């Protein structure tokens, strides 16, 4: 469930960047057994406008936590998705809870300018 989206359209009106937080409850296949999971993800996406229609150009998700509901995120903060075989791209930091790391926003900090 994507929530709290922020989308910034570039001055050219043809591209945009957006950040979304996501929350999920579900059951996903795991190597041993299915487990009920709770999770939080942040998306930083790039959009392009083609023939008047906005489309996704790039999707990037960073999991904050993905935990079994019966254990909770304190006991088991992260279970890797074993079905994803692609490694993160070079230069992309990924450190789920409890690291405290939140990957950068697509815009500069309005106070610091960084």
Short descriptors:
114 residues, mainly beta, Nuclear Transport Factor 2, Chain: A, 5-stranded antiparallel beta sheet, 1 helix, 4% helix
Question: Which helices and strands appear, and what pairs or packs with what?
Answer:
Layout: E1 2-9, E2 15-28, E3 35-50, E4 53-58, E5 61-68, H1 72-75
Antiparallel strand pairs: 1-2, 2-3, 3-4, 3-5
Structural commentary:
The chain has 114 residues and is mainly β. The chain is globular and about 50 Å long. It is built from one helix and five strands, in the order βββββα. A hairpin with a 6-residue loop joins strand 2 (15-28) and strand 3 (35-50). The two termini are 30 Å apart.
Summarize the model shown:
This protein is mainly beta. It has one helix spanning 72-75; strands spanning 2-9, 15-28, 35-50, 53-58, 61-68. The protein has a domain at 2-75: Nuclear Transport Factor 2, Chain: A (Roll).
Q: Which topology of the domain at 2-75 does CATH recognise?
A: Nuclear Transport Factor 2, Chain: A
Low-confidence stretches are none
Q: What is the second-level CATH architecture of the domain at 2-75? A: Roll
Rounded to an integer in angstroms, the radius of gyration calculated over CA atoms is 16 Å
Determine the N-to-C terminus distance: 30 Å
Helices and strands, in order, run as EEEEEH
CATH class designation of the domain at 2-75: Alpha Beta
Q: How does the overall form come out from the CA principal axes?
A: globular
Number of DSSP helices? 1
What's the overall average pLDDT, rounded?
A: 80
Q: What structural class do helix, strand and pairing data support? A: mainly beta
Number of strands: 5
Level of helix content?
under 10%
Profile the largest sheet. 5 strands, antiparallel
* SS strand fraction: over 45%
């Amino acid at each position: 469930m994507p929530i709290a989206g922020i989308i910034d359209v570039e001055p050219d009106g043809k591209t945009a960047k957006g950040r979304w937080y996501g929350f999920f409850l579900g059951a996903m296949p795991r190597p041993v057994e299915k487990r009920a999971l709770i999770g939080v993800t942040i998306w930083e996406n790039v959009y392009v406008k083609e023939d008047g229609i906005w489309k996704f150009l790039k999707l990037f998700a960073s999991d904050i936590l993905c935990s079994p509901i019966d254990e909770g995120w304190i006991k088991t903060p992260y279970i890797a998705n074993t079905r994803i075989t692609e490694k993160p791209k070079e230069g992309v930091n990924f450190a789920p809870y409890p690291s405290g790391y939140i990957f950068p926003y697509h815009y500069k900090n309005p106070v610091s300018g960084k």
